[in-house]
Amino acid sequence: MSVEENIKLVNRGDKAIKDRDFKTIESLYAEDAIAIMSGSPEPIKGNKVIAEISRQYLESFPDSHIENELEIGQDSWVCVAGTWNGTNTGPLTMPDGTSIAATNKRVKIPMCTLFNVKDGKIIEQRDYFDMMTFMDQLGLSKP
Predict the structure, then answer these.
(1) DSSP per-residue string spanning 97-139
(2) pLDDT, tens digit (0-9, with 9 covering 90-100), for 59-87
């Protein structure tokens, strides 16, 4: 696939997230895809698990949206940088599996996501954001 086609694939994922279309999210990833996310102790493995984690975050932050400010690609990689916004009105599952009650606080943090695409599927995703800022805005950081 060309760089332009890879960017379009990633944009389809953004639309699926906006539409809360978890079947499409799952279909965009290879069965054995991995996602490496800030704060997660281990990579998330598999398209079904990636779609489920997306669903959990959107339940925690139902008004969540990403404002993409930059999309660039090279070879099989696509990089998307922007700002993530959302209000925590649902329980939040932490990377260690514990659940935290909704804080009803709004977060706004810069983030960057890298996607590696092979044969029309996302095989790897790497999310980068400042977990301390995220936790602080939720009122969950420890003094």
Answers:
(1) S-EE-----EEEEEEEEEEEEETTEEEEEEEEE-HHHHHHHTT
(2) 999 999 999 999 999 999 999 999 999 99
**Residue 62, in any domain of the structure:** yes
pTM: 0.91
Q: Is residue 94 part of a domain?
A: no
CA distance 46 to 91: 23
Q: How many domains is the chain partitioned into structurally? A: 1
Q: Is the model's pLDDT at 18 over the cut of 70?
A: yes
N- to C-terminal Cα separation, the chain: 48
CA Rg value for the chain: 15
Contact assessment for residue 94 and residue 84, using Cβ atoms and an 8 Å cutoff: no
Domain encompassing residue 51? 3-89+101-137
Number of residues in the chain:
143
Q: Which residue has the tokens 């790497």?
A: 126
- Angle in degrees, CA 16, 18, 24, rounded to 5: 10
